[in-house]
Amino acid sequence: MTILAIIKTLIVASVSAYLFAGLFYGLNRRKYGIAFFVAGWLGNVSIFIINWIEASAPPFGNMYQVQVFLSICFLPLYMFLSHRDKFNLLGVTLSAQTINIADQTVGDPGNAKRLSRDLNETRDLRRLGFKNVTENFSRDNLGWTGVYFAAVSALSLIGAFCMSPDITWKRMPALQSPWFIPHVTSYMISYALATIAFIMYLVRKVGKVSDTQYDRAIYEILRLGFPFMTFGMLSGALWAEEAWGTYWSWDRKETWSLITWSLYLIYFHCLTEKKLKKYADLAQVLAFLALVTTFFLVNLWPKLSSVLHSYSS
User: Fold this and answer.
1) 140-172: per-residue pLDDT in tens?
2) 107, 97 in Cβ contact below 8 A?
3) How far apart are CA 63 and CA 138, in angstroms?
4) pLDDT per residue over 213-222, tens digit each?
5) Which H or E run contains 252?
6) How far apart are CA 166 and CA 248, in angstroms?
7) Nearest Cα to 63, choosing from 165, 180, 185?
8) pTM score of the predicted model
9) Which secondary-structure segment (H or E) carries 217?
10) Are 95 and 124 in contact (CB under 8 A)?
11) Rounded to an integer, what distance in angstroms lies between the CA atom of residue 150 and that of residue 285?
């Protein structure tokens, strides 16, 4: 069996596992969902390793390789988002246990009980986002979003399957930089999260779901992704100065990246102003359309292709 045949087989197996994961998440069978999600991810990582070995370089040289890596990003991001609040809740639980110990040791148990009651209302807990610990935990824990992360993982890998699997690319001198891996990785993380947020926006618009729950999840996902997008743009500027002698050349890719970043910044600004909040959805839609232009059209469509960044050749 040739390397390409092995890769194609692994892609089909991984996509199938991702789709089963999405199905089980949709049926609220999370244990089975995570099992298939991990199985698909391991196959996905195997493809990435094969690409790296065959290229003898980080496999970010064409759209096939980039989409394989993009698909890898979803599971770690989902695990982080779904478990982040459990660690926060653990901290609050430990605080409550400490108070219970104090309740047994202080002379006046009534004082300790009042202290325990008052502690849950303190500014410290509010700063941690726990105005009501149980209620906020059930709302903020994003484990229920697994169906979207698994489904989009499959979608990204299907895209890689449809691309020409050029696994023997060689890095040009401009790409032989320490900025190469962190720049691409940060953008892929931000693009992965932005895609999840957009899919969830569409579901919220057309489905009978909780607007509040989805709006909060979309915000949390984009809030995590935006710093990575910012780092990607800034590291790209530093890399450009190192490679071409200028921080910014207004190349099409750079321009559309700036438009995408600016529109997501507008989205966050809209959420901070009551008068502008109604425009937040529009800003998110426009931002994602700009992202699609940056990632796909500028890379693949000759009329929009970037001289410095395009994969179209």
Assistant:
1) 579 999 999 999 999 999 999 998 777 777 777
2) no
3) 38
4) 999 999 999 9
5) helix 252-272
6) 30
7) 165
8) 0.81
9) helix 211-244
10) no
11) 22
